[in-house]
């Protein structure tokens, strides 16, 4: 997708079978057998493949540069995480040049490309940034979401984690509601909203200066347009771009789940369990199997209780973890 993202290659038609009597297919080759009796084809096909860096798209609209400033600092945070790379994109402008001139809006940074809706499918996670208009996202960003109809129809974005960052003119101008009202866009696509919460720490509680941002995401106060983001606001944006789990995240190598840890039987369809809680608390979590909520406050993702292969996206790390149960 876009810069460095690439597109998923389409399936190409197989070439016609050659008339050459010398076959070059694998069927004509002897299949080496390992000591354990398994052939190479079977064993290698089950080996996990290591993908390239995870791609986090920072997609924003910025009229006067305040949201763009947060986006650039956020990219620094994402790029600072090993195995993750950020790509910045802007959505298309809907106002004419004449109107933008009258509004004294600066020219857009040509170094940041515009994104199309179809390109979103290539992201592993997305951070959307936009200014507020009466407590909701600006029309330019809404127009972009409105252009994702085909993706919605095919549910191509389902399961992708996403977050928000915003800009408002006043302290009561919508730092929270602008992000809150945008959650509906993610919901209809089946996307996962990943808020910041209060993980920014002491910076969330400072009262000695004006500071944008909320548990919903980073933010900046623009005032009449002349105010620039302060260091706290920029650091908040960088923090949002940096996965910072408060607990150790389980991996396939670190955690092994068995059937007796998973709710089964008649209650299996009603129960859920939390991978993070299992990892932290171990099997003594069994007493909470039939609860439909998780006692681990930092976890936002639940997996229906069932035996079999489970695939999920963990919050904050935005990494897909696949685990097979014995």
UniProtKB/TrEMBL annotation:
Transmembrane segments: none annotated. Its EC number is 1.6.5.2. Residues 1-44 are annotated as: Disordered. Residues 56-244 form the Flavodoxin-like domain. It catalyses: a quinone + NADH + H(+) = a quinol + NAD(+); a quinone + NADPH + H(+) = a quinol + NADP(+). GO terms for cellular component: membrane. GO terms for molecular function: FMN binding; NAD(P)H dehydrogenase (quinone) activity. Gene3D superfamilies: 3.40.50.360. Pfam families: Flavodoxin_1. InterPro entries: Flavodoxin/NO_synth (IPR008254), Flavoprotein-like_sf (IPR029039), Flavoprotein_WrbA-like (IPR010089). Its cofactor is FMN. Belongs to the WrbA family. NCBIfam families: flav_wrbA, PRK03767.1. This is NAD(P)H dehydrogenase (quinone). It comes from Salix viminalis.
């Amino acid at each position: 997708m876009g810069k460095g993202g690439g597109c998923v290659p389409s399936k190409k038609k197989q070439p016609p079978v050659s008339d050459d009597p010398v076959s070059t297919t694998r069927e004509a080759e002897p299949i080496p057998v390992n000591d354990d009796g398994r052939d190479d084809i079977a064993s290698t096909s089950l080996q996990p493949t290591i993908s390239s860096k995870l791609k986090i798209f920072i997609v924003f609209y910025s009229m006067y540069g305040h949201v763009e400033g947060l986006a650039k600092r956020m990219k620094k945070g994402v790029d600072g995480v090993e195995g993750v790379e950020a790509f910045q994109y802007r959505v298309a402008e809907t106002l004419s040049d004449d109107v933008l001139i009258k509004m004294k809006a600066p020219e857009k940074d040509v170094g940041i490309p515009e994104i199309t809706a179809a390109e979103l499918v290539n992201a592993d996670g997305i951070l959307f940034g936009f200014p507020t208009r009466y407590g909701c996202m600006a029309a330019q960003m809404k127009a972009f979401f409105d252009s994702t109809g085909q993706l919605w129809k095919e549910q191509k974005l389902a399961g992708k984690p996403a977050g928000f960052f915003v800009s408002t003119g006043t302290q009561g101008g919508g730092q929270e509601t602008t992000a809150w009202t945008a959650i509906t866009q993610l919901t209809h696509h089946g996307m996962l909203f990943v808020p910041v919460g209060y993980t920014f720490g002491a910076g969330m509680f400072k009262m000695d200066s004006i500071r944008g941002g909320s548990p919903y995401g980073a933010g900046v106060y623009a005032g009449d347009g002349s105010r620039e983001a302060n260091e706290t606001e920029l650091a908040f944006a960088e923090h949002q771009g940096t996965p910072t789990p408060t607990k150790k995240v389980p991996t396939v190598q670190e955690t092994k789940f068995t059937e007796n840890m998973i709710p089964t039987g008649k209650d299996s369809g009603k129960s859920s369990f939390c991978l993070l809680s299992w990892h932290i608390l171990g099997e003594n979590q069994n007493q909470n199997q039939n609860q439909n909520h998780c006692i681990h406050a930092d976890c936002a993702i639940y997996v229906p209780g069932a035996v079999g292969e489970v695939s999920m996206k963990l919050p904050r790390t935005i990494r897909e973890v696949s685990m097979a149960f014995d």
